[in-house]
Specification:
Blueprint (H helix, E strand, L loop, with lengths): L2 E3 L5 E4 L14 H14 L59 H17 L3 E4 L9 H9 L11 E5 L6 H8 L5 E5 L5 H6 L2 E5 H21 L1
Parallel strand pairs: 1-3, 3-6, 4-5, 4-6
Antiparallel strand pairs: 1-2
C-alpha cells in the first residue's frame, strides 16, 4: 500500500493499491518487452535515405576506355566504389510501426505498474495544501536535500489534468535533472519503467485507479 505524504514529507495515511495490480505478473516479461519495443519502434520517423547509383546525378559517360590504359575497367564515376558514388544496400524510407493488440498492451502496462507497487516505488502526494515555493524545498521533499537530488533515484511526478497545483509543482521541480513530469492520461509503460520511482498526486492516483477499473470492466465484458 503506497504512503500518502504532505508537502512537508510527513506520512498522513496509506492508500489501498488497485485490486487489478494484486495478481502474479512474473511471467509477463515477454509482453512487457514487446510493449516497450513497440513504443520505441513507433516513435521512429523512418526517413533515413541514401541514393543508389542510378539516383546519383552524373556519371553517364564512361570515365576511360575499356582497355589499354593499365587501369581497372570502370563504367561510371557514380559506381559505389567511387567517391560521391551511389550507396549499396543503404537505408530507404520505411515504416517501423509495430502492432500489439489492446489486451497485451493492457497486461504489459499493469504488470509494469504492479512491479513498482510491489517494490514500494510508488508514493502519493497530497496537494490540497501544497505550499512549496522553491526548488530546494521540493528537492528536500523528494530526496532529503538539494545535494542528494543530484544523484538520487530518478523520479516521475504524475499529476492530473486540470489539477489546481499541477503548474506550481512542475515549476518548482522542472530544474531538477532527475525528475520528470507527466499527467495521468499520458502515462505509459515506457514512463513507468524508465523512472526508479513514481510520485502520484492523490487526484492523479484516483484517476489512474478509475482508468484501470474501466479497462478491467471492458476486458471482462469481452471475455
Amino acid at each position: 500500500m503506497p504512503n500518502v505524504i504532505d508537502s512537508s514529507g510527513k506520512v498522513v495515511r496509506e492508500m489501498e493499491s488497485p485490486a487489478v495490480l494484486n495478481g502474479d505478473f512474473g511471467d509477463k516479461l515477454t509482453v512487457i518487452y514487446r510493449a516497450v519495443h513497440r513504443e520505441f519502434a513507433n516513435a521512429r520517423a523512418g526517413t533515413a535515405s541514401t541514393l543508389k547509383r542510378d539516383e546519383v546525378r552524373g556519371g553517364g559517360r564512361k570515365p576511360w576506355r575499356q582497355k589499354g590504359t593499365g587501369r581497372a575497367r570502370q563504367g561510371s564515376i557514380r559506381s559505389p566504389q567511387w567517391r560521391h558514388g551511389g550507396v549499396v544496400f543503404g537505408p530507404q524510407p520505411r515504416s517501423f510501426v509495430e502492432s500489439l493488440n489492446k489486451k497485451e498492451r493492457r497486461v504489459a502496462f499493469i504488470a509494469a505498474l504492479a512491479d513498482r507497487f510491489n517494490n514500494d516505488a510508488v508514493t502519493l502526494l497530497e496537494t490540497a495544501d501544497f505550499s512549496i515555493a522553491k526548488t530546494a524545498g521540493f528537492a528536500k521533499l523528494l530526496f532529503g536535500s538539494a545535494k542528494a537530488a543530484r544523484e538520487g533515484p530518478t523520479t516521475l511526478i504524475v499529476c492530473s489534468r486540470g489539477e489546481t497545483h499541477a503548474a506550481e509543482i512542475e515549476r518548482v521541480g522542472r530544474n531538477l535533472k532527475r525528475v520528470g513530469f507527466t499527467d495521468d492520461g499520458a502515462l505509459d509503460i515506457k514512463d513507468v519503467l524508465r523512472f526508479d520511482r513514481l510520485y502520484f498526486t492523490t487526484a492523479a492516483y484516483d484517476a489512474l485507479t478509475q482508468r484501470l477499473a474501466e479497462k478491467r470492466e471492458q476486458a471482462d465484458g469481452r471475455t
